[in-house]
């Protein structure tokens, strides 16, 4: 029966259903057993993935800034609709066997790890929609490394099983007590096709550390913000690394700028908030560090167009106004021309296309303790299975 439903001759199913959103398809699975079987079929899901959905929401997990403890409270902020409801979910990942630290997300799959301290730390890849998950052994577990999911189903189809990679980047500091030497980044790669880890022969010399909030994967290539004027790039397919200069060096500003990396239309973007305003840059050539400024708005214009939420923003930035020693305004995450940002103790969405802000929720709605430092991960729903069936 499933084969009869899934055929080019049936225009409604072949042409219409794959174009629907994941949220709508989840409701349609209840129509009949045949529809449930069809919508759960890998061939159907592969076609539906070509319908690039906008972000469904953002995961938010606070971090302790001055200690090594992990924090296990994770909130999910859905962003569908146009009315702010302060709707926050705290149990989206409760199907996992332990409390986790969220790391990354791609095409509906979420990458996370065990919370320290832990006897046997693991890395998890899961899909919150179907509540499927896969545990991966973690070689040389460390809180100091960065773990990233590489999942490109349009390049590597999910027809037989779901193919993905996990990349761990670690920093080795070879600086001597006299201050001589140079550190470098090394890379470990896990492949779901082999089920094995291996150490890449590629290393990247650098004297800067990665920032916790600065990782994004674009078309299978990973980028990390550092605490300097460079972005670390690694291509796990060809095992090539590179240091890319940011659009504007940090010493150009009188005030400490706020920035984040993100992806839109398959390209790397760099969001910057500084005394000059809000800027959006797109990477044109990673080998020459060529960036194009695609959007800019002054602080005064930003406030005038969103005076419901912003008041004397330029003056507060100029006077280095902070909340508990944290910048008054901060960039949290960027995805598909949507910026998640914090202003004081509130979370907002800024849409670059409409130039409008929307209040999403307050920090107090995200956790029992309002964290100003957090890991924030954009999330898009999908039906991607992790089972081998």
TrEMBL record:
Per UniProt, residues of the F-box domain are: 10-44
Q: Which SUPFAM superfamilies match?
A: F-box domain
Report the InterPro entries cross-referenced here: At3g26010-like (IPR055290), Beta-prop_At3g26010-like (IPR056592), F-box-assoc_interact_dom (IPR017451), F-box-like_dom_sf (IPR036047), F-box_dom (IPR001810)
Give all residue intervals belonging to the F-box protein At3g26010-like beta-propeller domain: 100-302
Q: Which NCBIfam families match?
A: F_box_assoc_1 (TIGR01640)
Its protein name is: F-box protein
């Amino acid at each position: 029966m499933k084969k009869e439903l899934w055929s080019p001759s049936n225009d409604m199913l072949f042409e219409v259903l794959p174009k629907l959103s994941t949220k709508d398809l989840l409701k349609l699975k209840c129509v009949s057993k045949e529809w449930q079987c069809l919508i759960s079929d890998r061939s159907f899901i592969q076609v539906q993935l070509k319908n690039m959905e906008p972000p469904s929401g953002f995961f938010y997990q606070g971090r302790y800034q001055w200690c090594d403890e992990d924090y296990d409270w994770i909130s999910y902020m859905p962003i569908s609709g146009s009315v702010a409801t302060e709707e926050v979910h705290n149990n989206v990942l409760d199907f996992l066997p332990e409390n986790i630290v969220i790391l990354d997300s791609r095409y509906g799959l979420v990458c996370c790890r065990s919370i320290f301290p832990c006897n046997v730390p693991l890395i998890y890849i899961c899909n919150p929609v179907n509540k499927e998950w896969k545990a991966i052994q973690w070689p040389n577990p460390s809180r100091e490394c960065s773990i990233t999911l590489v999942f490109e189903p349009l390049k590597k189809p999910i027809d037989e099983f779901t193919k993905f990679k996990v990349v761990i980047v670690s920093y080795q500091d070879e600086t001597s007590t006299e201050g001589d030497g140079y550190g470098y980044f090394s890379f470990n790669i896990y492949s779901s096709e082999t089920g094995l880890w291996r150490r890449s022969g590629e290393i990247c010399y650098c004297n800067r550390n990665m920032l916790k909030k600065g990782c994004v994967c674009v078309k299978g290539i990973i980028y990390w913000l550092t605490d300097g004027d460079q972005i670390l790039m690694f291509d796990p397919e060809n095992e090539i690394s590179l240091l890319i200069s940011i659009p504007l060096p940090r010493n150009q500003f009188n005030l400490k700028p706020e920035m984040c990396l993100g992806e839109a239309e398959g390209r790397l973007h760099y969001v910057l908030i500084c005394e000059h305003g809000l800027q959006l840059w797109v990477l044109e050539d990673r080998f020459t560090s060529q960036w194009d400024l695609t959007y800019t708005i002054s602080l005064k214009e930003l406030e005038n167009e969103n005076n419901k939420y912003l008041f004397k923003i330029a003056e507060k930035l100029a006077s280095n106004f902070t909340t508990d020693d944290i910048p008054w305004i901060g960039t949290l995450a960027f995805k598909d021309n949507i910026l998640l940002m914090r202003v004081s103790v509130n979370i907002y969405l800024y849409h670059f296309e409409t130039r409008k802000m929307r209040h999403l929720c307050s920090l107090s709605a995200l956790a029992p303790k309002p964290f100003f430092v957090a890991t924030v991960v954009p999330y898009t729903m999908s039906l991607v299975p992790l089972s081998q069936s």
